[in-house]
Amino acid sequence: MFYEKLDQFPESFLWGAASAAYQVEGAFDADGKGPSIWDEFSKIPGKTFKGTNGDVAIDHYHRYKEDVALMAKMGLKAYRFSVAWSRVIPDGEGEINQAGLQFYVDLVDELIANGVEPVLTLYHWDLPLALQTKYGGWESREIIPAFKKYCQALYEAIGDKVKHWITFNEQNVFTAMGYRWETHPPKVSDLKRMYQANHVINLANAEAINLFHDMLPNGKIGPSFGYGPTYGLNARPENILAAANSHEFNNSWWMDVYCKGTYPKFMYKQLERLGIAPEVTPADHVLLTSAKPDFLGINYYHGGTVRENRIENTSETDVEIKEFSATDPYLMQPKDEQAQSPEIPMFETVSNPHLKTTEWGWEIDPVGFRVALREVYATYDLPIFVTENGLGAIDILEEDGSVQDDVRINYLNEHILEMRKAITDGVEMIGYCAWSFTDLLSWLNGYKKRYGFVYVNRDDESEKDLARIPKKSFFWYQDLIAQNGANIN
Ligand code: BGP
């Protein structure tokens, strides 16, 4: 679709940036906080890049006022952050730790006082360790009342001060990494258990949404999903069918449950055939269909390209097959002993010959962003909040104290332009949070892979002085916000 002139961004559009508790806060045992599964996992030798962890991270817990002051200076309209469950309820289900809860109340107040709208994520992967030990984490339904209690504590303490709430961050990613690929806690490699845990999370998500609507009828709540469009390698009908399979496998498996309360049929039947489908009781069905999100959070990094499954495909052999990558949470490709995987008969993931990649091998696909926004809006008819999008890169602090991150500026510019086109197409959007505001800990890539508008002076070996230094992209985004994106053409 070509336009002579693009629509303006809505006046109320929330230009934001995002983070997650474990990646920024540090203070891992301060003021009564209990351990999370990440506090334990990151200490296991060989599990994270150079053994990095979030013990100190960028010490946002102690420096949040300085960080919020920088947000205000930038003119940021929204800041998405997550709450560490074990800071609020150290063992996940017992007494509330008032000091931990107070940190988030103070953060929210500080943001509001500085004209920045807080956007709160309830769960960004740092499950209280006690719940993992006691119940086996998300594999047990016994965790659901604990999650509800935690949500209730936040709904009560923060209430209408936060308008947009996120339930789960990238359920597709943390279940795959944690229960299939063993690259996140609880380091399980078992598909049946993965789909079971995923189902329990769906139930917890539905409970959290229903409770929210009861307690805070003026607020908005929804999940944040790691969405990527799936392309067929070319117009071969077999490859188009493979792309449809991949779409169901990678996207609809979660999005349909969030929005319609049911699992997509072809994928469910495929899992049943393999004996790994989750058990859905009639009561589950009632719960899942009763909980409706008010908007959809979309995290966009890249999609994937597929061709006909490797069992039937005999004609196309000259393309590059995607290798399994332990640090790319999206569209991983099973091989060897993982070959008994449900996607083997469905599709095969290949490199896209039209796309360049980042230093970490992630495809750069701004048009895919527009495709994603349109697909989601056309299918589910809910407003979209982009809750993550950004470029991980190695940034250099120059001798003159500047960081010339033009590569990031180009990346964001191209993606925001496609978002503007999607709005012109007719997609209803609430806002856009770049990942991330400051540099922060990458789960598996330490402090080397940076995303922020603000450089943080630390590396994998040393905390240095943790100084905050605005990068060139900081001033670029500041200018963009001041013009409400009118300069992005
Ligand atoms: C998303 C996560 C974020 C963040 C981002 C970048 O999947 O929700 O928490 O980590 O990816 O990922 P990475 O740090 O692996 O490059």
Automatic annotation (TrEMBL):
One Pfam family here: Glyco_hydro_1
Keywords: Glycosidase, Hydrolase
Catalytic residues in the record: 388
UniProt-listed InterPro entries: GH (IPR017853), GH_1_N_CS (IPR033132), Glyco_hydro_1 (IPR001360), Glyco_hydro_1_AS (IPR018120)
Organism taxonomic ancestry: Bacteria, Bacillati, Bacillota, Bacilli, Lactobacillales
Keyword Hydrolase annotated: yes
GO CC annotation terms, alphabetical: cytosol
GO terms under biological process: carbohydrate catabolic process
Family in the record: Belongs to the glycosyl hydrolase 1 family.
Official protein name in the record: Family 1 glycosylhydrolase
SUPFAM superfamilies in the cross-refs: (Trans)glycosidases
One GO MF term attached to the UniProt entry: beta-glucosidase activity
Species the sequence originates in: Fundicoccus ignavus
